[in-house]
Amino acid sequence: MKKIKIFLVLFLPVLPFLMEGCKKNPDDKSINIFTLQDDKNLGLQVKNEIFNNATEYPILDSVQYSQAYAYVRAIVQKILDGGKVYYKDEFAWETYIIQDDNVLNAFCTPGGYIFVYTGLIKYLDAENQLAGVMGHEIAHADRRHSTDAMTRDYGISVLLSVALGNNPSQLATIASNLAKLKFSRNNEAEADKYSVEYLCPTDYKADGAAAFFQKLIDNGQGGGTLEWFSTHPSPDNRVKAIEDELNSLNCSGSATYDTEYANFKANKIP
Questions:
Q1: Least enclosed by CB within 10 Å: which of 34, 66, 107, 126?
Q2: Where are the domains of the chain?
Q3: First vs last Cα of the chain: how many Å apart?
Q4: What is the C-alpha to C-alpha distance for residues 102 and 117, in angstroms, rounded to an integer?
């Protein structure tokens, strides 16, 4: 975050141009010099770069595995229909499945392009757990954490150049590193919080993300060796924080859809 403040001083003359027409969540107290259109441009370009890199990102064919896509996309749509995602109508919110059982991860680009690995899908035990993780990743895009983190890692000038389509070589690097993008602990805590808020209006048991973290702890997998923890802090205290948020919002949903999820894993995912 310090780098962003420094760059704001250096790039002050261009701020009126960058901020023009930028719809901002009034709840968002962070400083982000990128417009929503910048987020969308950058996200679309990264999505296309990912699709062009089948070796690193083997995307499941959406026609061949249409039922798998329908299931996962219905979860995302239910979250969006809950009415708590601020940029619901501005961002793309497209969902894709990456076939790699060895990776326990999901990520969302700026502008709402969501990618989830089969390894994560198969690890989880219930639909609300996947919804909780997806809500967490949606929050990173909706709260615009991605461009904040990318600014820290790559710098404003590089990202603006990429967003304008002027730096294709750097775009490939950004795309290949996106799954490993490191957010601040404050960003992670906020994404956990908003995962509960997004799920609260639905029929889901809204602490799905906590159930995922608890399983990692129970299995002794919270020590930093998994893909999730190359980019996310330890689950210590996160379960309690999520449960506290659930209680503070008085969420009434109780559905986990364990049976449906077991059928999905067994019959729809290769």
A1: 66
A2: 27-267
A3: 41
A4: 9
